[in-house]
Structure formats: structure tokens, C-alpha cells
Design brief:
Blueprint: H1 3-7, H2 28-35, H3 41-52, H4 54-57, H5 62-69, H6 73-82, H7 88-104, H8 111-114, H9 116-119, H10 130-150, H11 156-165, E1 169-172, H12 176-189, E2 195-198, H13 201-210, E3 216-220, H14 227-238, E4 242-247, H15 253-257, E5 260-263, H16 267-296, H17 298-322
Parallel strand pairs: 1-2, 1-3, 3-4, 4-5
């Protein structure tokens, strides 16, 4: 047995740590992640193409996948067998199920939080309790952050360049992502950068029409499949704006529409822990970007932030001395 074969997933004897499907088998995306470092040549090209474009691949024929990866159809077939499937059809079916779990985990309570067998991991004699479940949440959050940090792309420098050079930044999101958008807009405003956040399609487009080339539309989307968020990216690009997408699913629709795609958490964490971990990792990534912008704009951002803090303290002190101001009589 070669080194590569020794590290490839075995569908008949799955490793316990790879059970992202919850049924004792590795998920497709996780199989690719584990096998990828050991694959070479055409098989490596296939792994890269699928990992970068999973949403497109699930609807493609074997010939289209081969064309996208720049390999032969035979190489695609060998790739699917190398990661434990008996052919292309079973591979595509499993990939579709994987992506379905990613979307589903955005709306439900992850079983990894409440499953006694999972909550007790880490101690042979651990008793299942609320404390063990809470501890497991922290473990998974830390894993998500570590996963994100390991995969910070070099292209993040260009994202920071875009944020620094923009006159206006619009953060777009929905649901839980909107709270992160509002926080990020506030952070950048304290640095002297015109920023705002919107989730209503009726408000997003008018704001985009007021923006100029060089400004930034920054989408935050867990699975990258929200219609009006994707439309905001399309509208931004059509008007010459720089578009950025922060997502947990590589190759998502939103990611393909953005000039720059930033990933938080890997596929295994995305399926096992879903949007719970994504929120923490996304908030950390957005805070890190704000810190990088502050570092780049130190000469102007820090004095602005200090002046703002001074004004806020003064306002607070004045309120304490005089109490709440009464409205003027008409």
C-alpha cells in the first residue's frame, strides 16, 4: 500500500473523526479535504476543482467536470474511486446530500450540540450533562476558529486594500448575518470610514446606485445561496463596485459572484456545527479585517477613533451631571 492509499478515506472503515454525516460515514467534502494533500496530477486537479466549485459540480456531467478540471473523464472516474465511491454517479449524489446538509444546518439545531455521544467526547468517563454540552460548544467554536485561521488566503491583502481605498462600504446580509453586518459597519465608522448595513432588498439597490467605482459591497452569507444577497453582489459588480463575500461554503453562488471570496470554517465544521460556528468565525474575521484597516490607516483612523471616544465620554459625563434633557416646549 502506498502512502497516498494509506491516507485516503476508507468507506468501509470510516475514521470516527470524519463522521460529518452523522451516520458513521465521511461526507464527500470531508473525504476530499483529507485526501487532497496526497493526490497528485490529474487526481489533484479534480480535487481542487470540486473543492472550489462544489455547487456547480453537483449539477454537471462527468464530461463537464473533466473540462472544468482540465483532465480526462477517465481521470474524474479514478478520482471518485480514490475518495471511496464506486463511480461518478454515486459521487455526485453524495455531494448533493453534503451540500443539502450545509444548507439545512443553517436553520436547525446541530445534532452535534445535543447528541450525548458527541457531547461526552474528550473524556472516557464523562457523564452527559448541561455542562458537557456547553463545553462541547466551546470545543467546536475553537475548532471553527482554528479551521478559519489555517485557511486565511493571501488574497485577503486585496480585500484590505479595497476596504482602505473605498469611500463607501455597504454590508449586506440577512438573518443572523445582518447583526454581523451592522457591527462591522459600526466598527469601520468609528475609524472614519463611511459604512452602512442593509438587509431589505428595497433599501439595498438604492444605496448601491449612490455608490461609485472603488466602493465596496461586502456580503455576509453562511451558505451563499440567499437570493437578494446574491443580487446585491451582481448589482455591485455591474456598477463597477468591488464585491466581497464572506461565506462558509467554498464555491457557493455568492462566492462566484464576488471579486473576493473569504472562507470561514471548513466543510467538516460547516456540516457538523453549521451556522452556530459560522457566526463566531465570521465575527472574528470581520473584527480582524477592521483591525487590519485600522493598522493601514493608522495616521487618520486612530485620531478619528480617539476623538470620537472623547466626544462620547463627554456626552456621557454631561448626561450624568444634568440628567436627561427635557424636550423644549412648543
Amino acid at each position: 500500500m502506498t502512502k497516498a492509499q494509506a491516507h485516503l478515506p476508507d468507506p468501509d472503515n470510516p475514521e470516527p473523526t470524519g463522521d460529518v454525516a452523522g451516520d458513521g460515514t465521511r461526507g464527500t467534502l470531508d473525504r476530499i479535504r483529507v485526501a487532497r494533500p496526497e493526490l497528485r496530477g490529474a487526481l489533484s486537479a479534480c480535487a481542487t476543482y470540486v473543492a472550489d466549485n462544489p455547487w456547480q459540480v453537483r449539477g454537471q456531467s462527468i464530461k463537464e467536470v473533466a473540462t472544468g478540471a482540465g483532465v480526462s473523464t477517465n481521470a474524474v472516474h479514478r478520482f471518485t474511486r480514490a475518495i471511496g465511491y464506486d463511480g461518478f454517479r454515486s459521487f455526485v449524489q453524495a455531494l448533493s446530500l453534503d451540500l443539502g446538509r450545509v444548507i439545512g444546518s443553517a436553520y436547525g439545531l446541530p445534532s452535534s450540540l445535543v447528541s450525548p455521544s458527541v457531547a461526552a467526547i474528550g473524556s472516557e468517563n464523562a457523564s452527559v450533562s448541561a455542562q458537557s454540552v456547553i463545553a462541547r460548544v466551546f470545543e467546536l467554536e475553537i475548532e471553527a476558529l482554528a479551521d478559519t485561521m489555517r485557511n486565511i488566503p493571501r488574497s485577503i491583502e486585496r480585500v484590505v486594500d479595497a476596504l482602505v481605498g473605498a469611500n463607501e462600504i455597504l454590508f449586506v446580509g440577512t438573518g443572523a448575518a445582518m447583526a454581523l453586518c451592522e457591527l462591522s459597519a459600526y466598527r469601520l465608522m468609528t475609524l472614519g470610514i463611511h459604512s452602512s448595513a442593509a438587509s431589505d432588498p428595497g433599501a439595498i439597490l438604492p444605496r448601491i446606485f449612490l455608490m461609485k467605482p472603488g466602493d465596496v459591497v461586502f456580503a455576509v452569507s453562511y451558505h451563499g445561496n440567499t437570493r437578494h444577497v446574491n443580487e446585491a453582489l451582481e448589482d455591485g459588480r455591474s456598477r463597477g463596485l468591488t464585491t466581497v463575500c464572506l461565506t462558509a461554503v467554498s464555491g457557493s453562488v455568492a462566492g462566484s459572484l464576488a471579486d473576493h471570496e473569504l472562507m470561514v470554517i471548513g466543510p467538516r465544521t460547516a456540516i457538523a456545527f453549521g451556522q452556530f460556528a459560522s457566526r463566531v468565525a465570521s465575527a472574528t474575521m470581520l473584527d480582524a479585517l477592521a483591525a487590519a484597516v485600522a493598522w493601514r490607516l493608522e495616521a487618520t483612523a486612530l485620531p478619528h477613533a480617539n476623538a470620537l471616544q472623547t466626544a462620547l465620554r463627554s456626552r456621557t459625563s454631561e448626561t450624568r451631571r444634568h440628567g436627561t434633557r427635557q424636550p423644549r416646549e412648543a
